[in-house]
Amino acid sequence: MPPDPLDAAVVGCGAIACNQHIRFLTGSDNDTGLRLAATVDPAGPPKANLSGVRHYAYLGDLLRHDPSVKAVSICTPPSTHFSLATVVLSAGKHVLLEKPPTLTVRELRTLHTEAKRNEVTLLTAYHARFNEAVERLREELSDKPAPTRVNIEWREDFERWHGGQIWPWREDGFGVYDPGINALSILCHVLPQAEFQITWARHLTPQGAATPSLASLDLQWNDCNSICRANFEWRLGGQDVWDIEIYPGNTDNKYYVLRGVRRLLRYTGNLPQGLNTEETSELGPDREYADVYRHFRSLIDAGKCDVSYREMEIVENAFHIAEPWPRTE
Fold first, then answer.
1. How many CA atoms lie within 13 A of 240 on its CB side?
2. Per-residue pLDDT reduced to its tens digit, 60-95
3. Are residues 100 and 178 in contact, defined by beta-carbon separation less than 8 angstroms?
4. Closest CA to 99 of 318, 262, 311
């Protein structure tokens, strides 16, 4: 039996909202019962013709005039998330927060407390972890010793994903951690018991910007016997690279490569020669946001929240300890 219909609204009608959130909510594969009833953005409604979907310039207008809306997805720049989510949660509505969820861990804890006080759902929607390959990697690692080494390479063309946007470069933006937090969300998901400590970070901040376009950081866990080196880069042109290598602490010469988020490769044999490769997950359709919304609806029905703090703790600490990247003339 399909779930009962539940009216939802999307706040912010930028690229990620239109290409992912609105597309799924209005698509034929939406089996969640969540139906798009309204959008909110002072810049105007989405370009797509959304029959029967009401549009409001401001969140207050939605809350005053559209009481049927019970769930709200906040897809605005992260500097606005805390204030908007506070209002929505206080009104007794369920909230899905796009990543990064807030500017600080303290803000996120405050929102979580507000959600529980009002008995509504709050979801930090780290979409990258909702991939078959990521879940398969989590299963593969669940019965293995803690990894001894992890390498992350996360490099994107800024214009391809954020063309014309300036908020990421402001002091309350995240710079390259806006995409990089996706890699951290996968790391936290596949190693759920690890207590990460950041030991070193280096940032390259472009002239005139307040946030980095290039970041390298080291993480340790498992009594400091394991190390992760993560490199995040925003560049112009080139292919996007979203790769994570994980070397479990075992003796069977096996390691895993999550390539492009959606492919999981298992390597066995002696390094650097004699390797055998097995692809352990098929490159199926992109279902990240479909599963985000299925999870959101299941949380609503169960009266629960799903709030992850570890990603924001890593980013916040990285900004605190980062040293500047040496510049060459």
1. 12
2. 999 999 999 999 999 999 999 999 999 999 999 999
3. yes
4. 311
Asked if 303 and 278 sit in the same domain, the reply is no
Name the DSSP class of 17.
I
Instruction: Please enumerate in sequence order all residues whose Cβ is within 8 A of that of 48, keeping only pairs 6 or more positions apart, or say none.
Output: 18, 22, 26
Domain that holds residue 14: 6-128+287-307
Helices (H) and strands (E) in the chain, counts: 10, 15
Q: What are 284-314's pLDDT values in tens digits?
A: 667 899 999 999 999 999 999 999 999 999 9
pTM of the model: 0.93
The answer to whether residue 329 sits within a structural domain is no
Domain count for the chain, please give it: 2
Closest CA to 145 of 218, 225, 262: 225
Active site residue 99: yes
Check 99, 116, 144, 304 and give the catalytic one. 99
Burial class (CB within 10 angstroms; exposed 0-12, middle 13-18, buried 19+) of 235? middle
